[in-house]
Amino acid sequence: MKKSAVVGVVVVLGAIWTGTAWYTGQKAEAFVKQSIDQANVELKKFGEKWGVTPVVELVSFDRGVFSSTERYRVKFTEPAADGKPAQEHEIVFLEHLDHGPFPLSNLKSGSFAPAMVASRFQLEETPIVKEWFAATKGAVPVSGAYSVSYAKNVSGNFALAPAEFAKDANSLKFSGMKGDITYATGSKHGTVALATDSLVLSGQSDDSDIVSVAMQGLTLNSDLKPASNDMYVGSQKVGFKNWTITSKEKPPVQLKDTVIAVDVTEADSKMAAKMAVDFGMINVQNKDMAGLKLALDLKNMDSKAFKALNDVYEASSTRMMQNKGEQQMPEFTDEEKQILKTNFELMLAGNPSLSVSPLEVRTANGTSTFNLDLDLAKPTSMDGEFAETLQQAIRKLNAKLVLSKGNLSDLMAIEPQVRGVPAEQALQTAKGQAEMVGTMATAMGMAKVENNNIVTYLNYADGQVDFNGKKMPVEQFMMMVMNGVMGGGR
After folding, report:
1. Helix/strand/coil (H, E, C) string of the chain?
2. What is the pTM of this model?
3. Which end of the chain offers a freer environment for a tag, N or C, measured as fewer CB atoms within 10 Å?
4. Rounded to whole angstroms, how far apart are CA atoms 365 and 138?
5. Within 10 Å of residue 13's Cβ, how many Cβ atoms?
6. Are 330 and 317 contacting, i.e. CB atoms less than 8 angstroms apart?
């Protein structure tokens, strides 16, 4: 090929690249403005719930051929409180955008996939975040990068810088955090993965006995997408390697290897939810005491009814939090009470079920468990006698409690040890108490002793109860329970 031909090809390719980059810059600016509009719609919903009105504004957009620079701010109003007037604040971000189809910052990082734009952003110093900048000792508190495909799918990462802050008797030490995100604009499917090594908060308050909280090995993973009722379904998981709570008067409590996981799904207008909580080990006063696990499973929940119930609960909870402690429990308006009644009936009509499988307590000398399977149905009427309505609402119930005597002894020995009783002495006393529990439960017909376990179970269906092998009508069982309660109160 002649030299002139090669030069011609290079010129043509350069022109194509330049033209494509210029065109992509226009698309990128339109995408930024569209994203801000969408963000403000979601922020308005947030503001209506919490009484804060955040707004995102594009301050400037300087578009070039191969790259652009923008600045945008998040403005919000702090409500008037404690005699102080309402105050307006703003948080500003600076963003550098490289245009596609092959953004230079992506090429430098080894990513050769076509993209509409690649961003590098960071928080700018404003009065409201001035102390945060000081706490990071000159490092930018928030920074990150992301890439947007031509299908408007986003993937990126961000970082929070390490920070130390101290004022009066309060202090904060933060190791920093890193996160990865993805978001599909079309399906609104998003994922988030966060990780931080440590966070320590210290300080004293007249309202609380707690003087410090220290967390190590914190992780969060979220994978969510919208359901048909505009709620989000998917999985979320939070983990702590160590979580230590220190108080003024109570002994320090340490939670080791803690995992909290929630999984919500939707199929055929029905929702299901699973929650698992596992405290690998609960340590009190530098002594390993017990592990705790709880697994809940909800099925056949009507999607629309679940959304309506959730909305009412959120609204009442928001009002409760805005009352600054004056209201201890959620309170409902007459309209909300009617919504709760209507949608609770709709929920029951779908025959929902609840499983506890299991509630488990582990100690050095044994494991105790509680399992429950509960199937519900819609009663003939929700306005009848409570006992009759409840009997109609429960289609089937199976429950089983297994108390390990060794486990029960370990648990009963915790409180004396916290008071200073030697461990061996406390355990010997607790063993006698556990034996007494087994003997009394057996004598009262409330349980059986099997293989050093205190076991009791209850099965219910069609108005009949099977309690530890004794079958009876539910009315007889309720009478037996009432007699036991009244006898225990004398």
Report:
1. CCHHHHHHHHHHHHHHHHHHHHHHHHHHHHHHHHHHHHHHHHHHHHHHHHCCCCEEEEEEEEECCCEEEEEEEEEEEECCECCECCEEEEEEEEEEEEECCCCHHHHHCCCCCCCCEEEEEEECCCHHHHHHHHHCCCCCCEEEEEEECCCCEEEEEEEECCEEEEECCEEEEECCEEEEEEEECCCCEEEEEEEEEEEEEECCECCECEEEEEEEEEEEEEEEEECCCCCEEEEEEEEEEEEEEEECCCCCEEEEEEEEEEEEEEECCEEEEEEEEEEEEEEECCEEEEEEEEEEEEEEEEHHHHHHHHHHHHHHHHHHHHCCCCCCCCCCCHHHHHHHHHHHHHHHHCCCEEEEEEEEEEECCEEEEEEEEEEECCCCCCCCCHHHHHHHHEEEEEEEEEEEHHHHHHHHCHHHHHCCCCHHHHHHHHHHHHHHHHHHHHHCCCCEEECCEEEEEEEEECCEEEECCEEEEHHHHHHHHHHHHHHHHC
2. 0.85
3. C
4. 53
5. 10
6. yes
User: Which of 297, 294, 334, 281 is closest to 312 using CA atoms?
Assistant: 334
Q: What are phi and psi of 468, to 5 degrees?
A: 55, 40
Distance CA 361, CA 370 (A): 9
- Nearest Cα to 438, choosing from 417, 409, 458, 413? 409
**Contact between 302 and 329 (Cβ < 8 Å):** no
User: What integer pLDDT is reported at residue 324 of this predicted model?
Assistant: 62
Residue 351's nearest CA partner among 392, 296, 399 is 392
The position carrying tokens 């009315």 is: 475
| Residue 296 Cα distances to 183, 260, 275, 400, angstroms | 29, 12, 5, 15
From CA 47, how far away is CA 31, in angstroms rounded? 24
